Amino acid sequence: MNLKDYFQKAIEEGFALGAINFSNMESLQGIVEASMKARSPMIISVSESALKYMGSYCYALTKSAKQIYPHLFLHLDHGKSFEVCKEAVDNGFDSVMIDGSALKYEDNISITKKVCDYAHKKGVFVEGELGQIKGIEDNTSASEHIYTDPALAKDFVMKTKVDSLAIAIGTSHGAYKYSGKQTLRFDILEEIERALPNFPLVLHGASTVEQSEVQLFNQYGGKLEKANGIPRELIEKAVTKHNIVKINTDTDIRIALTSQVRKVLNENKSEFDPRKYLGAGREEIKKVVLDKIYNLFHSNDKI
Ligand SMILES: [Zn+2]
Predict the structure, then answer these.
(1) Which terminal residue of the chain has fewer beta carbons within 10 Å of its beta carbon, N or C?
(2) The domain 3-297: what is its CATH number?
(3) Domain segments of the chain: what residues?
(4) pTM of the predicted model, to two decimals?
């Protein structure tokens, strides 16, 4: 099954694929091992800056990962230009995101359409974004939410021919998602679904920022004050009751890895074997991803 088949299956059966960001071998291993154990399809996401960090090792690592477990889809997260998306398409990515959300509406349409025209010819899927997702993650930042306009969503999909659409309904990038009430705009989501029936929708900035992980992080000398995420029940509702088929998660993976590195190094001051602290981080990522697959995405046993 290709990604589009999985998205349709996800709409019909009320689950979602995780789209989890990685930036090194250990995070990729943790994500893949969890997916394999749970027999879950998985989107492995690379941001422009993670791609820069890993260089061509990124392609080698993901190629190996797909040989070990073929139910993985390699995805470019927040591509900001046609050139970056083209490079990903040419290097064998299964799908790319063109993020023209900061541009004027007409310009967002034109760049998204250009990427679709190129990618579709090569059988690569394209995700667009409409609205603005608050917060900071790598080279993507916005100071305010601009909720997706349901009327424009339909027009945007028709004109660009995107395969999926990232929408803004109150999720945000980073580890500080709320200062007030922790909620999402399900009313807007429902309007979008009425305008675009059975169309695959994507939630970015959907880490849950588990307080147990934050506590561990802080216990060993870290400082993440008032970090918080999207409540688990809201993610689950978006996945099971709505057409959200892709849940982006980055922050949770970063915190899981780093909290274990902090723990191991603090508990054993003489430790200098990277396998000891990165290995502990890898195990923690696996644990976090398994929890998400079984309890939030419900994508276990779907391959
Ligand atoms: Zn994002």
Answers:
(1) N
(2) 3.20.20.70
(3) 3-297
(4) 0.96
